[in-house]
Structures are given as structure tokens and as C-alpha cells.
Amino acid sequence: MALAYIVDGGLNDNPGTGADLYERFPAVRRLYAQVHEWTGLAVERLLAWELPTQQEFRQVGAIRQAAVVLGLCDVLAEHGVRPDVVGGLSLGGRISACIAGSLSRRGLFGLLARLRDAPPPPGPAQGVAALVVPADANVEDYLRGRLGDGLHVAAELGVVGGRDRMLLLAGYRAELDDLAAGLPKGAVRIPKEVVAAYHSPLSQYLVDFLDPALDTVPFDDPVIPLCSCMTPRTLTTAAEVRAEFRRNPIERVSLPQVFAGLERHDTELALLLGPAQVDLFLESPNVHVVHVESAEHVAEALTAIHEFGVLLSPGGAR
Question: Which residues, other chains included, contact 26 with Cβ-Cβ below 8 Å and sequence gap of 6+?
């Protein structure tokens, strides 16, 4: 049986995220001190929330989420827990690559800090929309004639409650509004605070901005299996991981793809680390998921690991 770590995408943290971990665990305080050194962000700012959601994500939120996740990895390692396989969605895919040993923490936080200087999206106003379709619907058929250069499927989020398939669309705000007007009421939810079309070709400007920094970061082959959130495979080489970093902003991501990868590696128990849209991760029939975001959750995770019979060893080696 394999133990997996999984990490969700960004924009899920709330004010106060990570504060109890910082107060409770010396390992987290040590990591936050390193994050300050690598990014220039004061620890107090990592523990605070000051800006609207979109701005907060780019200025601090992505760095905060990575710090919370990697801090939890350190806390769990002190209890002898390390993953056999790892995977993540969107930003979580990049953090997962760091957990898998494909790039250093300094390299990851340097890239996330670079986001702070990213330009705003060019052209007409952009955004995202959550779309609910029937679980048995063919997504491409359901959206036939509605997608185009200005509207794309950005993320496949799986089936919730056995009834609804959840998608995230990205595109120009006007086209998202037109889509919402043409579908049943409540089928489309457009968060007004998100003003970028993540995981679509409209984010090419972000790839162009980040590429020079990405080219300077050393990548290594993952030391544990790293499940892709964009293709049905396990990433095994440094080149594959670097390519996914480059494609991440402009291509569709898939949570079912991540779970399929975990199942290929015989995962029965997965720890969902850090801020997350938790309900989306509880639907897999073959993988039991335990959310770990707070100090209280750490104890619950250790209990689950014991109940599943995961073998641990002193010093954290699996």
C-alpha cells in the first residue's frame, strides 16, 4: 500500500492560514525563516491577509500555500512519515514537484516570488467560472459550440455527490457572462474577484514573463513518483517536470488525472496537505483522503496512518 501526498491549487487559503502551525511547530518556524530569506517576505506578512483575493494570491498567497504544505511535510517527517507518491493540481502540481525532489525549495520559492512582479492580463477583462454539468454528460458535447479562442475548459475537478461534474472555465469575462446567460440558472458561478484566465492560452503572457526565471532553476529527476495533473503519466525526468512547469499556466489540469495516477501506484491513503477545496478530494472510491491543514489535523493524520497500517521508521525514512 502506498501513502500519497496531494496538494490543491491556489486561491483556497483564508486569513489566518498557517498561523497555528507556526505557533505550534518549530519546524514550521524554521521554514518560514528560510522563506523570508528566499523571498524577502516578512514572516508577519506570510501570517497576514491584506489584499483582495487575486492580488493576495500573487503577492503572498502562492508563497504562503507552499510554506504551509512544506512545513507540514517537515512536521510529518519528524513523526517518521514520508510519501511514496505525490501529485497536485495547478499550483499544487508545482509544490508537489518540490516534495518529489525535482527542484529545491529555494528554487520553488524563487519562482513563486517572481509572480509578485507579473503584469496584469492584457486585453479585455478575464476571469474564471465554475460550471456544473450532469455527471454522465460528455463535456465536449455539452459545451460544443460554446468554446473558442476566448473561452476554454481550464480544469476538470471530478464528480461531486455522484450527480454533478465540476469544471472550471477560463476566458474573457464577457464570454463567461454570455455562457452563464445561456445555461440553466445556477449552472455557472463566476467569482468576480478572480481576474485572470488561468490554465488557458490567454495566460501565455504569464509564461512569457516567467520563462527567464524558470530557465535559471535547476531541475532533477523526481526521487519519488510524481503524478501529472495534465497527462495520464508519472513524471520521471527533470525535463518532463520543467516542461509541465512551463505549460501549467496555459493548459487544462485535471484532478481525476491526479487520482488515476495515485491509483496506478496502489495508493489507499492520501494526505491532502494545506488549503484546499476539500469536498472535491473526497469522492475517489479507491483512495481515502485525510485533509491536513492545521495543528489539530496533524494528529488526525497520524491516527489515520496508524489505522491503515502504514509502516514508519525512525528519522522519517520510508
Answer: none
Q: Contacts by 149-154 with C-beta closer than 8 Å and gap 24+?
A: 149/201, 150/124, 150/174, 150/175, 150/202, 151/175, 151/176, 151/179, 152/197, 152/199, 152/200, 152/201, 152/202, 152/252, 153/252, 154/128, 154/197, 154/198, 154/199, 154/200, 154/252, 154/253
pLDDT tens by residue, 80-110: 999 999 999 999 999 999 999 999 999 999 9
Homologous superfamily (CATH) for 2-117+202-316: Malonyl-Coenzyme A Acyl Carrier Protein, domain 2 (3.40.366.10)
CA distance 136 to 116: 40
Polymer length in residues for the chain: 318
Helix 105-114 crosses helix 91-99 at what angle (to 10 degrees)?
Answer: 160
Into which CATH architecture does domain 126-195 fall? 2-Layer Sandwich (3.30)
The alpha-helical segments, DSSP class H, found in 40-155 are: 43-46, 53-56, 62-78, 91-99, 105-114, 139-142
CA atoms within 13 A of residue 147's CA, in its CB half-sphere: 14
Residue whose C-alpha cell reads 463535456 in the numeric block: 139
Q: Which of 185, 178, 168 is nearest to 146 (CA)?
A: 178
Domain ranges of the chain: 2-117+202-316, 126-195
The helix/strand/coil state of 204 is helix
- The 3-state DSSP class for residue 206 equals helix
- pLDDT tens for 135-160 read 888 887 888 888 889 999 999 999 88
Specify whether the CB–CB gap between 286 and 277 falls below 8 A. no
| C-alpha–C-alpha distance, residues 290 and 282, integer Å | 9
Q: How far is CA 285 from the centre of its chain?
A: 21
Instruction: Give the alpha-carbon dihedral of 153, 266, 72, 12, to 10 degrees.
Output: 20
pTM exceeds cut of 0.85: yes
Q: Nine-digit cell at 53?
A: 483575493
